[in-house]
Design a protein that fits this description.
single chain, 458 residues, mainly alpha
Length: 458
């Protein structure tokens, strides 16, 4: 009945309904995702205040931290998709069973990576040329943090289940709780009680447990995890993890590797250029959060519609998302470009470094108007069963920027060529948006069953 009603609804009415649903989904997701970005930065600030070698030790751990966060993202997004499809199909028991099945795979995977990292702590210290005076501290830090990271999929799975079933505010509450425990305990244990860098794994472990407990309570109260639900193995989660979780995790690693590559290219131009670029990338990491949250919100609702057998609603939903993203990022681009000089000075506090940040923003920030839509499209592709395609598009984008832009920059003895390459790649991302539009049109015509099968097929 719902499907036929959706087919006869006037297009403008359908679009307005999707806009309202999307806004209700995305409004709480943006601030909660921003908290996820701010939390590691806050921990770094606190470790800098601790003095000594705490910040140095934590900075050396950054590559491993990205690996753990990539795993967490892959597990969480897979669970979110599973929950949305099951919720849309009116199967609350399948939500609990699907998320529990993903947990059975996710926790052992993270534990295995943590074990390997702990065992390789000494060789890693050698590889990173850790100073002898802090080598023991670094090894202990790696081992304890690797153990604590095993608990982090818990909050991610709970947030995924709550968001996927239409409770984004409660998912945000779990994220805020986890972040407050992490930041608060680093402050208390590290600064007040003198535990130093080892306050980080302790805070992460307690935050992981607190977020998981709260998430399970909220899921039970909202019937996301119904009492007596059979937590049997769901074989379709294999397809979810392969087609969605793995590409999402690999994309995280790719972004990290590309940023390292660009920093390597710029290293020949001196510390002012490197610092200016780092400040610009820091700003950019905050600016992309609304696009990713919007894309995730669109994908959640799409998967709910597919689970409910209403593929005809996908096109109006995608249009609502693209219109919202276009308006928001057109304004973002205008503000970042017109206010680039004062913005750069606020970010850096150093006129020489600010000049380089402004130089980057002068070239790249006008393309934010399209870059936001590209990120939205990639996020949707990842979560509706086209993760491998999204990964390929990401590889093409970053390979073009780092390889071509880096070669031109070094050949021309100026970082401007790299910035030009980023801007051109952002503009070329219109092909990603066009690809998503074509896929959604095809899905809406083909029906819900093939689309759901494409998401979950191994």
């Amino acid at each position: 009945m719902a499907a036929s009603a959706g087919e006869t609804t006037h297009p403008h009415t359908a679009l307005a309904a999707e806009r309202r649903a999307l806004w209700r989904m995305v409004a709480p997701m943006v601030p909660s995702e921003l908290i996820g970005v701010i939390t590691p930065a806050a921990v770094l600030v606190l470790m800098g205040i601790m003095g000594g070698d705490a910040l140095y030790v934590r900075s050396l751990f950054t590559p491993l931290a990205f690996l753990f966060f990539a795993l967490q993202a892959g597990i969480g997004v897979s669970a979110q998709v599973a929950a949305a499809v099951a919720h849309g199909g009116g199967q609350p028991g399948a939500v609990a069973a699907g998320v529990a099945s993903i947990a059975r795979v996710g926790f052992p995977c993270v534990a295995l990576v943590g074990l390997v990292a702990a065992l390789c702590a000494q060789p890693l210290a050698t590889l990173l040329s850790v100073e002898p005076a802090v080598r023991a501290d670094f090894v202990a830090f790696v081992r304890w943090v690797s153990a604590a990271m095993v608990l982090l999929p818990g909050p991610a799975l709970c947030v995924a289940a709550l968001r996927g079933t239409g409770h984004p505010w409660l998912g945000g509450l779990v994220l805020v709780t986890t972040a407050l425990f992490e930041i608060g305990l680093v402050y208390l244990l590290g600064l007040r009680w003198g535990l130093g860098s080892l306050s980080v794994p302790a805070a992460a472990a307690v935050g992981g447990v607190a977020g998981t407990v709260l998430g399970l309570i909220l899921a039970r109260r909202r019937s996301v995890w119904p009492a007596g639900a059979a937590l049997t193995w769901r074989p379709e989660v294999t397809g979810l993890l392969v087609r969605i979780g793995l590409p999402v995790a690999m994309s995280f690693v790719l972004v990290f590797a590309s940023n390292l590559g660009m920093l390597w290219v710029l290293s020949t131009f001196g510390p002012f250029v490197v610092s200016g670029f780092a400040a610009a990338i820091t700003l950019q990491s905050v600016l992309v959060v609304p696009a990713v949250a919007l894309g995730s919100g669109v994908a959640i609702l799409m998967n709910q519609h597919l689970g409910a057998g209403q593929p005809q609603r996908l096109r109006a939903l995608l249009r609502a998302g693209l219109e919202l993203g276009a308006g928001g990022y057109a304004l973002t681009a205008l503000v970042c470009w017109s206010a680039r000089d004062p913005l750069a000075l606020v970010l850096t506090g150093d006129p020489a470094v600010a000049h380089e940040t402004s130089r980057y923003l002068a070239v790249v920030s006008p393309t934010y108007a399209l870059f936001g839509l590209v990120l939205l499209a990639l996020t949707v592709l990842e979560q509706i069963g086209h993760g491998p395609l999204a990964l390929v598009l990401n590889v093409v984008y970053f390979a073009g920027v780092v390889a071509v832009g880096g070669w031109l920059a070094r050949r021309g003895s100026s970082p401007s060529a790299l910035y030009d390459a980023v801007a051109v790649a952002n503009l070329g991302g219109v092909t990603v948006v066009a690809t998503l539009v074509a896929l959604v049109r095809r899905m809406s015509r083909a029906g819900a069953a093939p689309a759901v099968a494409a998401i979950t097929a191994p």
